């Protein structure tokens, strides 16, 4: 079997997981020393931290002044489900999905909420559905950046400004790396553990004035658990959007989120974060274009994610294997890279086509991705040699 020499350089940080994502450069536990641990989150000290997290979010993401920003339980899933359970059912819904998370929201709406006037717009991994067919006078649920296929919408131009329905956007792999068009979005959700490398557990829920109006004028036919309730007596509970969380948050996670936001601010804010993700994507893309054995799973270049970069192995001998064979090949590469300590968690998502998925969000250093690329060649060549040896 041919043994290919190991590259000389190793990534300083081998964490390329798509969530929880790499901590920011220079992060250590010492950054959390100011966390008000052992104190009530409702005491002034805790409440001030929660307000600070909300205001820094507004500043960095450039959230319009009239939009509410809340910290909610259960990470991005909690935020999306809270929005769907509270807002949907008032009118028909167009569900738009092109990978497993979007598909999960369809399951929620069809099988759990059991809503009937639902149209589905779905596409295979690597593609986007035809967005021109979506009716924005209905409510629309979609994912801005499909983490498991690496396909994103290029911008919000497909959404009309004068829509009658609400747009509910799961933006967890997009926020802080891509420009979200807030004027076109009524609900935006994300978690802390993605582009800013924060911790899991808490979600962010951003509501447009139209979403608030719906909350105050429409009552769903189904019961809402306390954890989802955003109104009281038909009025928005404004406190939720001022740091009075529905239940108890982790002040350690809050401190970590504030640390990440301050890091982002120090870099220059959103433009700098988008710039870092774009540069990271470019480092991977340059390698992929030259590789001869890898291709981006996202077919259309403008839809290629700059965070969750999903790659297929297109080498003819590997592509000729059945799906299990391709999955085993990719898995063996991923495992060899992990054993070498040069890349952790870069296998494709379990429901996605076999391949690699490399996180390129802002907390990842371009130099680490550059160092990783030759290792992909190394792992591929070795696995290819193993394949030949078996044949
Ligand atoms: C697009 C998308 N939606 C939802 C989720 C679920 O997020 P969480 O585990 O933070 O609830 C993820 C996680 O990877 C995701 O990528």
TrEMBL record:
Pathway: Amino-acid biosynthesis; L-serine biosynthesis; L-serine from 3-phospho-D-glycerate: step 2/3. It is an enzyme of class 2 (transferase). CDD domains: AAT_I. GO terms for biological process: glycine biosynthetic process, by transamination of glyoxylate; L-serine biosynthetic process. Keywords: Amino-acid biosynthesis, Aminotransferase, Cytoplasm, Pyridoxal phosphate, Serine biosynthesis, Transferase. It catalyses: O-phospho-L-serine + 2-oxoglutarate = 3-phosphooxypyruvate + L-glutamate. Coiled coil: none annotated. This is phosphoserine transaminase. It comes from Aminobacter aganoensis.
